[in-house]
TrEMBL record, chains A, C:
Keywords: Transferase. One of its GO terms (molecular function) is 3-oxoadipate CoA-transferase activity. The gene is pcaJ. It comes from the Bacteria. This is 3-oxoadipate CoA-transferase subunit B. InterPro entries: 3-oxoacid_CoA-transf_B, CoA_trans_fam_I, NagB/RpiA_transferase-like.
TrEMBL record, chains B, D:
It comes from the Bacteria. GO terms for molecular function: 3-oxoadipate CoA-transferase activity. Transmembrane segments: none annotated. Its EC number is 2.8.3.6. PANTHER family: ACETATE COA-TRANSFERASE SUBUNIT ALPHA (PTHR13707:SF60), KETOACID-COENZYME A TRANSFERASE (PTHR13707). Keywords: Transferase. This is 3-oxoadipate CoA-transferase subunit A. The lineage of its organism: Bacteria, Bacillati, Actinomycetota, Actinomycetes, Micrococcales. Gene3D superfamilies: Glutaconate Coenzyme A-transferase. Belongs to the 3-oxoacid CoA-transferase subunit A family. The keyword Transferase applies.
Length: 228, 253, 228, 253
């Protein structure tokens, strides 16, 4: 949309997943939702124990099964086949969502259409006429975890900012997002709005402010460079 | 002697009337009582209200019930999936009513019905369209919406093993809604892979005590599982079949 | 208290327990509380399956253990050692009381200080100054089961009626009692007050009305005679 | 590597401050974490608020904690028992505060805290002294009282086996309050008879997933169980010892 956009550093979705994985300490209980955030699992260090929750009723979720070893009763929230680690536990849906709602998860990672500077999240509906609404566990995850991380591109395909002053899409949760990991930078949600925690490559707070059209707090460190 | 077992799926679903409200267990295919649903289709009840997390996958089970136009209304959290083409068509044609409930509120409202709770304050959905019109209350600095129990005339549940008292154990994530739906419906009908003699289930491991179960039927190994793979919509490697989207992702990234 | 009292037929507590047991059909889920109602278990027919619930977290409770086979982890609501039948299940307290509150038990049998003619129950506190209050699961049982049976002597030790127009002791539950089994007669709670369902021995509705000081509905049949 | 096990009961209860609120599992003696309570007595924290179903039995465990005058207030459903002489004396002397909660409301309020429910409408106790001052609402023709969650700084729980992730299984009716208290406290401390290697517990049978557990200590076979009998207050046949009433009956018959 602007001239400066072309100069911006963007990291890949895989790099972003790896970047998020860095911020998840050993021993954390983590829900990676469905879709892109599930990529984060591929970058969690193999020598550390991080326990994955899937809201359909399991802690200790393991990777995808080997070819021919699919168990149709063992799936994740995206309904893909998974495995169980030693130390896993199964439970029913009320217990699983009680776990979420009760604030027992350390981290959840969600996608977003928009995040507002006060931490409102919109990720379940574009409100488009005729679209079939579906919400699943998004609203429960948004309000449940101690840290709600959003993983998203900073800009939409048409160049608009997904970080906004106030969401225009229907909300998933109010004031719930704690941090936003984008392909351009990492932002914390603070009482003063978005704070740039880490700008990737040559990105600057000024550039990010221009791209988002928002006043940003500068708390930045230098982060991943493009292609790193 | 207490014997809740019945010989056939036809007997299991007998008596379900037109216009009944029916909870159907399962999250996607896992835990979906496909054989009971097939029997319900054959039985013929229509004008049904269905409570399920989803609105059918592929062409089997709940999707097949929908395709027969037996369902007036569905209450669920996530109807739109890569393989929900049956529901999608009916919804777009205005032939089915949808009530959308966030998944955790759906689960807790079903539990509340089983546990005799009159209503409860949930933080989920507050400030969103899905809490519009609900009573909002601030408690200890946080906002909550008042949610009411969801009951049903019947629950159709798929479990793994049962004894003749109706004690149930489940398999892996197929447990999902089974235990809470069994507690919330007036009549709970269960299909299991296997019936075992009374005393075979360790009392420590029973997930649904028989008090919540009215009828149990063994269906053997479920026919819609084949060689360790889903049948309908997903191939042997777990990849969606051609024509289905890459995943059930809820966002546009 | 009155001249007629001496003529009244009274059955023993064991006879009363046996009488209650007769009214519990096979397949029932039953909670026998603590104290005297637990006697009913001894009179349930051995050739029928009736499943006992104990609110501390078990269905399928069996009889007392043999000498030397006490398991301290396996007790009933009165904290006495019990056994588990084949087909038993254990569960935690929230699930156990959900089962009660949710109306899943067919019958519970409770003791009483007083029962009012509209079915109010008082059985947890005499309200005596200095007494240590204790309620346990009494209030949950009172409002939870489909049929709430009271097992009690008709008269107190000083000859007062435990069936009353309105309870003077602190209430356990409002309008919750469905039937009262006493040593003199069985009474149903009806919209018109107590109905004599069965008068034991030579007892008459007139006698019972005199003893209780209440107007009673006559729905009586002849029941157990004294010493039978 | 996640390892929630600690070597000693002293380490398990370290850091508990004066004035803390502590949930203590158990129904009577079953499930009472006696070894942890003994460690808490040795640790010395005082001015405690205790949440338990009862108020101690005999002279061990919770009763011993009370006897040391470490407890300011107790929230429970059934303090008065045949062997609650320690509590009885303190209460009559005005040395302990009592908040009486019907047992099912106690359990559900603890569960609500763990499950993030802001408040709920319960039918239990409506119309009685124990609902005085509570908000009453009629829902679908029945009256309910509004009940709030009960949280705590710590939960002390006795389970049967644990792995190093803190997954727990219980034994028989000793399960009682353990699972819900573990979910409701900020820090959950568990004693078990036995620690087992990760992967030894069947994921289908785990009752308390490790997410609710912070510290686990093995105490071996519990010392206050002896030759299959309770120790303290009850003899080998399960009969109350001389001086105790015949049963815990709540009525005067």
């Amino acid at each position: 949309m602007t001239e400066t956009t072309a100069q911006a550093t963007r990291i890949t979705r895989e790099q972003l997943a790896a970047r998020i994985a860095q911020d998840i300490p050993e021993g954390s209980y983590v829900n990676l939702g469905i879709g892109a955030p599930t990529l984060v699992a591929d970058y969690l260090p193999l020598d550390q124990e991080i326990i994955l929750h899937t809201e359909n009723g399991m802690l200790g979720m393991g990777p995808s099964p080997e070819r021919g070893e699919i168990d149709p009763d063992l799936i994740n929230a995206g309904k893909q086949p998974v495995t169980a680690l030693a130390g896993a536990a199964y439970f029913h849906h009320a217990d699983s969502f009680g776990m979420m709602r009760g604030g027992h998860l350390d981290v959840c990672v969600l996608g977003a259409f928009q995040v507002s500077q006060r931490g409102d999240l919109a990720n379940w509906s574009t409100g488009a006429p005729g679209a079939i609404p579906a919400v699943g566990g998004a609203m429960d995850l948004a309000i449940g975890a101690k840290n709600v991380y959003v993983m998203t591109d900073l800009l939409t395909k048409t160049g608009g900012s997904k970080l906004v002053e106030a969401c225009t899409y229907p909300l998933t949760g109010v004031g719930c997002v704690t941090r936003v990991y984008t392909d351009h930078a990492v932002f914390d949600v603070t009482p003063d709005g978005f704070a740039v925690r880490e700008a990737f490559g040559d990105n600057t707070v000024e550039l990010l402010a221009e791209l988002t059209g928002l006043e940003l707090v500068d708390a930045s460190t230098r982060g991943i460079r493009e292609g790193e | 002697m207490i014997d809740k077992t019945v010989a056939t799926v036809e007997e299991a679903v007998s008596g379900i009337r037109d216009g009944a409200t029916i909870m159907i267990g399962g999250f996607g295919r896992a835990g979906q009582p496909v054989e009971l649903i097939d029997a319900l289709i054959a039985q013929g009840a229509s004008g049904l209200t269905i409570i399920n997390n989803n609105a059918g996958n592929g062409d089997v089970g709940l999707a097949a019930l929908l395709a027969k136009k037996r369902v007036r209304k569905i209450l669920c959290s996530f109807p739109r999936q890569h393989d929900s083409w049956v529901f999608d068509g009916l919804y777009r044609a205005g032939e089915i009513e949808l009530e959308l409930v966030p998944q955790g509120n759906l689960a807790e409202r079903i539990r509340a019905a089983g546990a005799g709770i009159g209503a409860f304050f949930s933080p989920t959905g507050v400030g969103t369209q899905l809490a519009e019109g609900k009573e909002i209350r601030e408690i200890d600095g946080r906002s909550y919406a008042l949610e009411y129990p969801i009951t049903a005339d019947y629950a159709l549940v798929s479990a793994y093993r049962a004894d003749r008292w109706g004690n149930l154990v489940y398999r892996e994530t197929a447990r999902n809604f089974g235990p809470i739906m069994a507690s919330a419906a007036t009549t709970t009908i269960v299909q299991v892979d296997e019936l075992v003699p009374l005393g075979s289930l360790d009392p420590e491991t029973v997930v649904t005590p028989g008090i919540f179960v009215d009828r149990v039927v063994a269906v053997g190994e479920r026919g819609w599982l084949d060689a360790g793979a889903f049948v309908g919509g997903v191939d042997i490697e777990g990849r969606p079949l051609a024509g289905a989207a890459a995943s059930g992702t809820e966002v546009d990234q």
